From TrEMBL:
Family in the record: Belongs to the short-chain dehydrogenases/reductases (SDR) family.
Pfam families membership: adh_short_C2 (PF13561)
Lineage: Bacteria, Pseudomonadati, Bacteroidota, Sphingobacteriia, Sphingobacteriales
Molecular-function GO term, any one: oxidoreductase activity, acting on the CH-OH group of donors, NAD or NADP as acceptor
Organism (species): Mucilaginibacter agri
Protein name: SDR family oxidoreductase
Keyword tags: Oxidoreductase
Cited SUPFAM superfamilies: NAD(P)-binding Rossmann-fold domains
Membrane spanning stretches: none
Length: 267
């Protein structure tokens, strides 16, 4: 089991306070890593880092801002001396504040340009900046693992039918922004893997499926029916895959897309 040990390694998780982000942090800490809990909410990031145990760091990070990313890099290197693992987890997944307007606003014909641009800024530019600034440290030390979190929707088009209610009415549409940006992340992984492979930096994608998180039962049933395992994911279902990609257990793996979706994309 030493292959999965992260003792002495430093791991940065962006978007660390999200549902899956917290589980990523917990898994990395349990595997022995020093975890940098990076999120826009500094107070909450500091508090969550303290919950993980000793020698973890909570810090504010805006992945779209180069100065913010650089500041985090300097703080992490100053505290730990290296950056060994980067989990590019921060992302926007459309939420519509007014349910009555969700269908109209999410329809492709009406989808706001500023919402599309915001997803590009976080989901693509954020991954670019964090990989560039944190990854350069890994390249200089000739070792490291970058894990880009994408989605099943980075590989297949959304099934809009699962967003209908019990009466068969479309409640909203999965917008173009999330599939487009997550598809870009998958190919960006291939670029980075080929660019830094000769410097010992491995870059892989983790593509999760949908996580059960207080959705209505009708949606959960519809989603689950599309998976071979007959259920949505639990938030901790990705922890094993994450540690595999972060550790020496995947030492000969780079440029790959590890799909953990209960079989959604298998048929």
């Amino acid at each position: 089991m030493d292959l999965f040990s992260l003792n002495g390694k430093t791991a940065i998780v962006t978007g660390a306070l999200g549902l899956i982000g917290k589980k990523h942090c917990e898994a990395l800490a349990q595997a022995g890593a020093h975890v940098v809990v990076a999120d826009v909410n500094e107070e909450a990031a500091v508090a969550f880092a303290a919950q993980l145990g000793d020698n973890h760091l909570g810090i504010a990070l805006d992945v779209t801002n180069k100065a913010s990313v650089t500041k985090v890099r300097d703080a992490v290197v100053d505290k730990y001396g290296s950056i060994d693992i980067l989990v590019n987890n921060a992302a926007i997944n459309d939420m519509f504040e007014n349910p009555a307007m969700a269908k109209e606003l999410s329809a492709f014909e009406n989808y706001p340009l500023d919402a599309f641009q915001k997803s590009i800024d976080v989901n693509i530019t954020g991954v670019f900046l964090c990989s560039q600034i944190f990854g350069a440290i890994m390249a200089a030390q000739n070792s490291g693992s970058i894990i880009n979190v994408a989605s099943t929707y980075g590989m297949v088009g959304p099934d809009q039918s699962i967003y209908r209610n019990e009466c068969g009415e479309q409640t909203f549409y999965k917008s173009a922004a999330y599939p487009v940006t997550k598809g870009a992340v998958i190919n960006f992984t291939r670029f980075l893997a080929s660019y830094w492979g000769n410097q010992g930096v491995r870059v892989n994608t983790l593509s999760p499926g949908g996580v059960e998180n207080n959705q209505n039962e009708f949606f959960i049933t519809n989603y689950s029916a599309k998976t071979l395992l007959g259920r949505m994911a639990q938030a901790n279902d990705y922890q094993g895959a994450l540690i595999f990609l972060a550790s020496e257990a995947s030492a000969y793996m780079t440029g790959a897309n590890l799909v953990i979706d209960g079989g959604w994309t298998a048929i």
